[in-house]
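Q: I have two molecules that I believe assemble together. Could you output structure tokens for the complex as a whole instead of separate predictions?
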Amino acid sequence: MCRRFILIVLSLMGLPALALAQAPSAAASSQPVTQAQITALQQAVQTAQMSGDNAWMLVSAALVLLMTGPGLALFYGGLVRRKNILGTMMQSFAMMGLVTILWAVVGYSLAFGHGNAFIGGFEHLFLRGVSLGPSAYAPTIPEQTYMVYQLMFAIITPALITGAFAERMKFSAMAVFLSLWSLLVYSPMAHMVWGIGGLLNSTGGRFPSLDFAGGTVVHVTSGVSALVTAIYLGKRIGYPKTPMPPHSMVLSFIGACLLWVGWFGFNAGSALNSGPLATSAFINTHFAAAAAALGWTIAEWIHNGKPTALGAISGAVAGLVAITPASGFVQPMAALAIGLIAGVFCSLMVFEVKSRLGYDDSLDAFGVHGAGGTIGALLTGVFAVSSINAAFGNDASGKPLPTGGIDGHWGQMVNQCAGIGIAWVISLVGTLVLLFVVDKVIGLRVSPEEELAGLDLSQHGEEGYDFNS
Amino acid sequence: MLKIEAVLQPSKLDAVKDALLEAGIEGMTILEARGHGRQKGHTEFYRGREYTVDLLPKVKIELVVPDELKEKAVQAIIGAARTGRIGDGKIFVSRVDEAIRIRNDERGETAL
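A: Yes, here they are, computed for all two components at once.
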């Protein structure tokens, strides 16, 4: 039934191609089908497949950009005090501008050029050689689609870090620090996990790591870098005694929902095609978000006696973070479990660990992204099954090789730990070095007067809201 | 001429406005304020931590009335705003030296 349907569709798609072919239409005559007709038909099929995949990938790229602007801008913006709303949003927006240019010039080349196990090369400087034809990374879409899709990931990753140093970093210093971070931490990590020949690449890497959409590349790196930055910069004036509640949970709520929807592009788009794997990732993404929102909410209800809106949306984000590495490898029920675990785990990180250790990770970039990414990457190793994604290919007899623990391959946990470990180390070291250098040259933190006046006024000469006009 | 300032619960504003209108008092200024007397604040939660918000939303009504309307105005306010619980608010009365209508320079009680 299915096969007949496909044959009908294929032959219908073939008709316009046949009109272009040199040979006369076979529809009316009784002549045997010629080679030219078969070639034309194959081309038509390929074009159709590519157009379906490319359409989804372009939408996914747009969805991921939406996650930064305005998703993250609003989510973070609502969580800070009113005097810092524009400053916070500008940090995300600045990434949209700066990282795009850096990526086009050299970032993509460093991440996805051939290079060695740790870093790509300069062969794609200024996007040389990145054509509209397919690439080894994604055989059914133009390489430029792949490049622009990956760009959106490169944009959001440094933007996530801004949550840790909210309300106290100079705009100029932030711009320089995060630009350098994108080239020196993000591109290498992206190369190691996804680049050809990368150390952690699931195909052929020394430690084949399962990271579907960037649990380590995006969330562990940004989360750990966030922690380092929060500690290096020091606490906000008045923290923790002065209450600093969100000035607009409404904005944060809108931002969080945009993140949830945008994440379909982030995870399901990482299938790099519009086939069934994209469906798997889409479903897992959604299920994990829902389960995690519930997990955090229940944990908070028990802890405080009331479920807060902030807790619910933070839970959803934590679930989305945790499912990111797992989205294209696990079954839907596993996604529910991963979400639930991440929701509870990250809530404890934020409620207990943060206050006990005393660091001012203002918007919980580490608590949600660092911790969520780490636990998600570990759970990916547990729950990955080859029936969803035979990521390690087949064995000699044609059977898919097991991917994760419940599939029979508990050794995968070693590789997952390698990926997580490398992400931690490169983030720790890279961020510390960059912070030190930028601090010496420009100075990272705003002055106390500027901090009290607020970033909107001190850094941008603007006010976020003018209730008097 | 007396100035009557009443700090009230925001939820009582409409009732007090209506009561004052019924008492024949039409001019008033309404301000949004924050404050507390003996009323304790409420607790809010942020990231799992509880903290107390002491500055509660209030509404302040200011009226200037001729001396003979003072008691009527005060009773109108009390009648509409009283619930018997802590947090009902306070009324302050003070003397006003001069009142001037901007439109036409009228002064004194006729300007009210």
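A: One point stands out. Chain A touches chain B at residues 243-246, 300, 303-304, 306, 308, 310-311, 347, 350-352, 354-355, 364 (CB under 8 Å).
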